[in-house]
Design goal:
Pfam families: DHQ_synthase, DHQS_C. The protein contains 14 helices and 13 strands. With about 375 residues, it is α/β, with parallel strands linked by helices. The longest helix is centred in the middle third of the chain and has 21 residues. It starts with a helix and ends in a 5-residue tail after the last helix.
């Protein structure tokens, strides 16, 4: 489709703004960094990393399937004079366990890594979360750089410094907020991404449309198939960049999640419960969040915050996402997990609701009965 035709009806586009590369600042004082979005960036990764290369030991943390495809990217760094070692971790959520963090720490010791070493997280959200946690704790903190290879990581998890491993009791319960030195995004990585992974990843992008920018939601209404197929580079680049800008702005305003940053948890409270109850198997993270957003939208409507029309619009978009069947869970099980959620503060659950599409709010008035009834939206 011609870009002029796109601009005529797509709120993400204007004739003067369509481009394929973006730079988004995360303003955090001495911890500030840049998010770079650029097609083909991986082919020039050594140039982007050169400012940090002082001859120290670098560690690429990744998964086997990613390394099998992108080993030439690592070889490129070696050819450019980087001292590079690679550590492979499991290819699923099981990698986010303290035993795997300990394994990575031990391998880094054996490699001679010191406080000048740099960890390069090459992968999706699992690699980024684990890699950031390892970097935050190894020798009390070493630099790390995010090179996300999944759409979910590009629009959300690689940005903002949240790092963690899971416990049996819940997701991301042990971790640290530790900022990367840079986030380097190449949408070309997405060419090998399975459709299910794309659909799951888009959960975090549509989330921004719900909580902050209704134009993103409007684009999901009008161009859902184009987003899922990834067949329009300009659209893909812009929605990644727009998501990054929203997250960067929120993180810059509230790095440690004392207020505004809580909005980013829309759909996550109940979504994390679904993940936990299924032992992090069967559901991708984004799929669980999509189910969680269905519940949160139901509660927003039930409490009279979200109008009938906007609730139906939200429901219609979420119903377009292809989701696997949710394993049967009881309300008591969900509530049991929610009781241990990180968003429970002084006995009050900070739950994210909507009063309109494009505006999220933090509520402490979501009851157990609200959550019980909301499960009817997904079962």
């Amino acid at each position: 489709m011609l870009r002029s035709a796109i601009a005529a009806h797509d709120p993400l586009y204007s004739m003067n703004s369509v481009k394929l590369n973006h730079s988004v600042p995360v303003e955090l004082g001495e911890q500030s960094y840049q998010i770079h979005v650029d097609f083909g960036l991986k082919n020039h990764l050594a140039d982007h990393l050169a400012p940090w290369n002082q001859g120290q030991q670098w560690v690429v943390l990744t998964q086997q399937a990613i390394f099998d495809i992108y080993q030439p990217v690592v070889n490129q760094l070696k050819s450019a004079g980087f001292r590079i070692e690679t550590i492979i971790v499991p290819g699923d959520e099981s990698a986010k366990h303290i035993q795997h963090a300990e394994s990575v720490w031990s391998q880094m010791v054996a490699m001679g890594c010191d406080r000048s070493s740099i960890l390069l997280a090459l992968g999706g959200g699992v690699v980024g979360d684990l890699g950031g946690f390892v970097a935050a704790t190894y020798m009390r903190g070493i630099p790390f750089i995010q090179v996300p290879t999944t759409l979910l990581a590009m629009v959300d998890s690689a940005i903002g410094g949240k790092t963690a491993v899971n416990l049996t009791a819940g997701k991301n319960l042990v971790g640290a907020i530790y900022q990367p030195k840079a986030v380097l995004i190449d949408p070309d990585f997405l060419a090998t991404l399975p459709r299910r992974n794309v659909i799951s990843s888009l959960a975090e992008a549509v989330k921004y449309g719900f909580i902050r920018d209704s134009s993103i939601f409007d684009t999901f209404e009008t161009r859902f198939d184009d987003l899922v197929s990834l067949n329009d580079e300009a659209l893909l680049s812009e929605i990644i960049a727009k998501s990054c800008r929203i997250k960067a702005q929120i993180v810059s305003n509230d790095q440690f999640e004392n207020g505004e940053r809580r909005l980013l948890n829309y759909g996550h409270t109940i979504g994390h419960a679904f993940e936990t109850l299924q032992a992090y198997q069967g559901l991708y993270h984004g799929e669980a969040v999509l189910y969680g957003m269905k519940c949160a939208g139901f509660i927003s409507h039930k409490q009279g915050l979200l109008s009938d029309l906007e609730y139906q619009r939200a429901k219609a978009v979420l119903d377009r996402f292809e989701l696997p069947a949710l394993a049967e869970v009881t309300a008591d099980q969900v509530l049991g997990v929610v009781a241990h959620d990180k968003k429970m503060i002084n006995g009050k659950l900070n739950f994210i609701l909507l009063d309109r599409i494009g505006n999220g709010l933090v509520s402490t008035d979501v009851s157990e009965d609200d959550i019980r009834q909301s499960l009817s939206a997904v079962q």
